[in-house]
Structure formats: structure tokens, C-alpha cells
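Let us practice reading a record.
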Amino acid sequence: MIRHKVMAFVAMSAASVMAFNVSAADVVDGPEVNWNVSTWGKQRAFTASVETIRDYVAEKTGGKFQIKIHYGEALSKARENLDGIKLGAFQMAMLCTAYHPAKNPTMSGLDLPFLPFPNLKVQTAVHEAYYYDPAVLADMARWDAMPLMSALLPQYEFTGVGDPPLTIEDWNGMRVRALGGIGEAMRKIGAVPTTVPAPEVYTSLERGTVDAASFPFTYAHVAYRLTDIGKWYTANLSPGANNCPVVMNIPAYKALPPEYQKLLEEAKEPAYEALYAAYEAADAKNFPMMKEKGIQPIEYSEEELAKFREVGGKPVWDAWIEQMNAEGHPGTQLFELIMTTAKEASGS
């Protein structure tokens, strides 16, 4: 049932992303509610999800349901947003599960490398189905957290300094910022991965702490100024994408009137559409800029890409399934959910 609902959800297209055409008769009457959202960095494509949710619920309630977004780690460090949700320090937060895989082990399935996500629509379908799996919901509930939607990061690529890695062998010994499953894949390939929170990546690359850093392509490379110091970037490696959900504090959510809860669910459709549009607009602007800066694109042949997937993909999948099963989580079931939903959403 969930999977069919997800497919129907993804198939819909919002007529407008930011203009919701709310008449006076459509305004939902309810109490005044104020929520705070903790995130990091500045306003950018990644935050289009919570910004659209904020605007949607405010407009639909005539301003009675107000959501304030706190950028730049103003409320909490990026690594500590899940802890803040648990404490009830704020009602909503954006987080990346690879920052703390031990806190949310089941969620780490979406951090696996080289998953079959040909586009963001397929990725949306998989994330929506995965978030609502009972095992995942129970895992997050330990932190008084429930997922609302995915921030839906595009496939990652690397920007680096020094000699460009033109073959899989060239990555051997390179120090790379790579989280979660992408980090495990790079370790299998021979690189040395490290977990660096997004706000610290520019400094790490500038000082030579890392040789290359992976980020969602292209918007985050520009948002975090890697293109100011990078000499090259991978154009088609597509090693994966970190799972970064928008989560809510369960007690705060349950305290909302049902009408407001429904609005949050309704807001997801235009929020996803806003993400698609924001990432597309970022690429249209960033590719010419990167070319002008003279940053060298690295495009691997299909033969070389097959080596990356063979060495860095399936072994990481198998190890994750084995670990999850050993820890008492339904690893086999969760991985099958990813692959089956991706296949159905792709129409293959």
C-alpha cells in the first residue's frame, strides 16, 4: 500500500512551486503555532524543501502556523540536530544520517554507494517508501524523531586539488571527504575517507587536510566555495548521495491539530518540486561558471566506471546487509525495498 501511494505521489506534478493560490475560503482555521527549524549553511537549493514547507503552511493558515528557519547552525551544530530533536530544543531539523550512523543505523541504507537512482524522481520514490518502513520509523522514534521528507541531494561528485585522478588507481592513498556509504566505497577503492561536516569542508580542502571533497553536484560545490580553490572535478563518477531527511519532533507533531498535520503532508509535493527546480537552475548557472574558472572536468569511460562499481559498490552493499542483520535490523528487507522501489519507479 505504501509503495503504491509513493508512486502516485511522485507521479503528481505541482502546477506552481511557490504560489499556492489560497483563497479566503481555503484558509485552514486553527491556533497560532510557532515552530523552529535547525539547519546549517545559508539559504540554497538544499533548503528549498523547508522554505517551501514554511511558506505553504503559513499561507494555508493565514499566518497562524509559522515556521522559522535558523540557518548557519544558529540553534545546533549539524552533527547534533538529531540530539536537539530528542531534547525538544526545536520542532524540526535537517540532518544528514551519515554524520552519525550509529544513532540511526537503519537510515544508513540510503547512504549506500552506487544505488540505481537515474534521476531525482526515482530517488524521491525510494526515499518516501524507505522512510515509512516500520523498522525505520521505530529506529527514528528512539530519538523522538519522525521523517517528513527528504532534502533529496543529487548524486555526489568530487572537487579536488593537486593531480587529477584519471583512473581508479590514481585514487589510492588520496585523502577524501566522503561520508557514509560513499566513504566506504572510496575506502574499497584505496582512498582514505574522512567525515568532515559541510561547513568545515572548504577549510579542510584549502589547508590540505583533504585532497578532494564530495558534495552534491553541482550546487553544493558552489555553495561551499569548493570551486574557488578546486583544480578539477569528477563529472560522471556518481558514487551516491547522502541521505538528508527533514525530521520533526514527535511530541510537537502530535500536539498539532489534525488540520495542521495534514498541511505538512500536503506541503511535501510542492517542496519536492521546488527542489527539482532549484537543482536544475543551479546546474544551468554553475556549469558555465566552472568552465570559465578553468576547473578541469574528469569524465571516466564506461570501462573505468564499471571498475569503480565492482570494487566500491556491491561489496559495500553486502557488508551493510550482513551488519544490519547481525545487529537485529531487517537489512535484507530494507535493501530489497530500495532496489524494488527503484526498479518500479524507473519503469523497468
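A brief commentary: Residues 31-153+243-281 form a domain with the D-Maltodextrin-Binding Protein; domain 2 fold (CATH 3.40.190.170).
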